[in-house]
Fold each of these.
Amino acid sequence: MTFNHSLDFLNGTPWYVVECTLQLNTTSRRIALFLMYLFIFMVGLMENTLVVWVNWRRRHSSNGVLFCIINVSLSDLMVIMILPFFMMEVTLDQVWLWGRFLCKVTHLIYVINFYSSSFFLAFMTLERYFSLSRPSSSSFFPAGGRKRWVVCGGLWGLSLLLALLENVHVDLLEWDEPGCYMLPEYSYTEWFVTVSFLCLVFQFLGPAAVIITCNVLIARAAKRATDVQNRRDVWLVHVYSLVFVMCWLPYHLVTFLMIIDDLDPYVFSCNMVEVLYFSFSVVQCISLLHCVANPFLYNFLSKSFRNNLINTMLNYIPREGTAERVGPRANAKTANEGGRDPGKLSNASTSHSDVGS
């Protein structure tokens, strides 16, 4: 950003030298960011891989919520795979050593996840609400026909389109050291404000309104339902909303304040501006915690998913010779028990991944 403060002096000293008295520890920030990225990479990779591995065999299920869960995990896996580049960039203090192509590709993948994860979470919550309140209504992601793939492709396509609007100005810039930056050649302020506003509306405000509203309605419907098997889980729907807001609100709040500073550089003090730009990379990293939170909330807290995970793991354990030892009667009993779905919950269940399991 370019500020026109060159004519503002106090006793012959530029204004920003007088006002900027805050000393921020960038070394501690680099260490903290590296550790946070490492945590998200290791835990998020394990969680989302398990979610896709367990649910992939049921991807053609009529359960639209399950279909959304798979897409959310695939989206999170995409951004998790590029985190090593971010970790090295943070360690090298924003120096980019992997060329122009990877600069643009990694940023494109990051922004696609930025949108697609929120879109599929919002549609998942809508699907969950309609399955409780209107069981006979049509699904957004029906098992048969082309509607499921059209809606799914539309959400991914919209995410790609919004990401390209930003990624077109991402490039490798050679200053003192090479760096991967978003910096248009002309009309920087107009571009930054426009892209940030689109991000605020499409990635946060719109999905947050859907997620919070539907989860409140789901909680009310579940409390009135007579077939809820575990009423203690009703509070989970509010946790879904809270986690989404906690992950994304700090990022959008800092971005919004940066927009204000870009439009009117005299609004905030120099120290405040320093804090904003210092904290931007921190809240950007915090937003990626959704890659760790989503699998835990929408899958591992679900009894249905845990049962499917155990059954999937058992399928890969060698059992040769077992059938000969236990006899035909025990085999028949095991087969009958295996036909049951231990994770099947009522239609009024508040767990997203229990719907239609």
Note: The longest strand covers residues 170-174.
Amino acid sequence: MTPPAQNPGAAALLTLAAAAFIAGCTLLAKALGTDALGPALHPLQISQGRFVFALVAIGSFAAGTRFRLVRPALPLHFLRSGLGWGGVTLMFAAAAFIPLSDATAISFLNPVFGMVLAVVILGERVGPVRWTAAAIALLGALILTRPGGGTIAPGALLALAAAACLGGELIAIKFLSGRERPLQILLINNLFGCLIASAAAYFVWTAPTPAQWAALAGIGLLMATAQTCFVNAMARADASFVAPFFYATLVFAALYDAAVFSVLPDAISILGALTVLSGAALLAWREARLKSPTVPPARPL
């Protein structure tokens, strides 16, 4: 019940796990937003399914452990849930218009928004190495978007809006993670998100097929697991350190495409993925040196 000790290595691994689960959510949302599993569902309904099933999973665990809420900051929770719902819904909509890798690449520019907001709002000190690592990862994301490759403008704009919403949510999570327990944050977020998403989906809801029900449940369970990993990561390291590791979602999305749809990455995809991983590796290496007692003190990065 006490705040966890700072552990950048664990935070990096937890963020990578969250990235893998979120890429899986986007893959299922792509199938639901097209005709792969039946008549395409509206993004608002897909987003509702994500929150409903995530709430069932997290709520069941909380009930089983007799968890009790302790002085939650409800206005901040509501702001975080609104930003998260907006980001998820826009991301699901973008995935239906443009290729999965492109939508993921554009929307997961949110770590850039998150790191910049961490400097402005949280007062985190970011030095040249972190900025360089973030810039390298951003370059990899831009390579994966294939500039000039004919990306559909509406889908790209939806993904960009998703990135802005999710970057704002990143800061709200950081505020909450230093004050409340992870399970409380997850439970309230999915409760508020479920209420917001259900109200929005009421006007577009249609009966899903059995396969679509299964995919909706999968999205909710994967997202609940991803949230658990991410909230715990944010409690163990600065937001500016955690954020760039989310670029790994791009790599996982490419791997899922290859495994599920037999879409092998081309040279541009491989170059972009390696560039993203290079930026994340540089950030992790520098952070480990700063935390090591054998390394002389250095200015913050």
Note: The mean pLDDT is 81.
Amino acid sequence: MNLGEILDVHQLSVASGVPADVAAALLEGRPAGRADLQTRFLQRLDLLRRTRLKPNGRRYTQQEIADGAGMSRQQAGALINGDRRPTMEHCDAIQRFFRVHAGFLTADDADALNSALLRTEQRLLQEHAVEGDRLERLLQDHGVRGIAWRAAQLPTDKHRDKVTEWLDMLLESVKPVDPADSPQRTET
């Protein structure tokens, strides 16, 4: 996979839910409009309905979304049409139905794009990992990079220090042992 494929605005838009023009602006370091939560929800739900299709290639109906998300057709219709503001429960149910990550429908555009890029990074690391490198496998298997990014979002140093302690313990557990540091066995 080359850089052009990784940074393909259309693919990033589908993966993140961020409109392609906003994704392009963010990738170029330009400021992008800040859509309110309702607008983001409607844009991203529309994107899901256009890009996550049934096996026969057709869109899911309001009834199918409602059934899959555990709500009435009227609730689903009101959400899809923008006549009703979604609750977090609505968002979670719809995200599970379409099998997208938590926050897909609600994350700020920059955060959503960053999350899509991090998932791409994780996938690329897994594809190119050296099987014997335990530290690299730890970074991949346990999502340490993602944890570090999320830890940076925590509200206080106290919270971040707890995450740092946990990571230090985890990293210590996979550190290669230097034979010079091992106790010498003596024969008696």
Note: The chain has two domains: 3-98, 129-176.
Amino acid sequence: MSLVQYSDSDSDSEPSPPRKKIVRPADPDLPPLPASFHSLYASSTRVSTKDDPSLHAGRKRAIPHVEGNWPSHLYLEWVPVKEELRLLTDLIQATDPISSDSTSRDNQNKIANTSANTNANANDPASIHSLLHTDLGAQLPLHISLSRPVILRNEQRAPFSETFAETINASNIPSFHVSPQTLKWDSNYEKTRWFLVLRVSRPKYDNLNRLLKTCNSVLHRFGQPPLYAKLDEIENGNEGEDLALKSASTSNSGVRPVPVPMSVSTSTPQSTPVNGDENNGDFSSCFHISIAWRLKEPDPGEVERVQSIDLDKVRAIDIPFHCVKAKIGNYVETFELPARA
């Protein structure tokens, strides 16, 4: 039997009617992607097995990699929509006198979507690096930290996740909204990096402070330092004694905690509450969202420039938070908050 012969000429067969293209109208009310979706792409590809600042715009690893250690972080995630992203891009551009004075709006948007730097020379310590996009132009989620960068041992991973889930569920803290309020430069603990941060409003029912206290209590059980708070604000301990300097006892989970020195917190700004140690657990002045960073400390003129930027449109942004995220190594878990009260 021979193979089936197919004609190589359109004249040998009836012409097929053209297919009608189906155009579906865009639905303006499509639901947002679930928070867990962004967790699938939360980790970048490792490009080196050792700390090489030249691969990360001069940044140095705050916590050296040790086998069996899992760098961890608790946070609230925000993925700005297109218009919000444009407003944040304008903010970053406005902090740089060269970009804001000589770059057109079209060029600004092009820069924001193709590079993480607003200055031409990325190796310049004064260069401002956006946290809105990757070097390839992909959008990055922003966040409010609820912990320092801490270290969990391999055997602590599962107990920590279980304890955190139980504590969040028992807290009855509902989902909530905040809005940006002020813009300023703030440094990390070692003053090796400066971050352009947006302070946020105090939400209804004081849910940010409530979440911080909840997170700090879980971290304490695993021998980890708190964010912002002192030990006496977490439990009835010695006044002013920081958890990071206190030897921790065995946690309720049966896993021996691993105390971590305060100096681990170098990747996020270290805000100081307005009322210092007498703030009665109110850290509303500390909560912030970082949108850019640089290696060089801003001079007084740059600080003044940031303070003079008009924030009226940015303050109108409504930022919802429906879950807390825990990043342990390269794995991100999502812990849902109850429905908004």
Note: The domain at 67-336 is CATH 3.90.1140.10 (Cyclic Phosphodiesterase; Chain: A,).
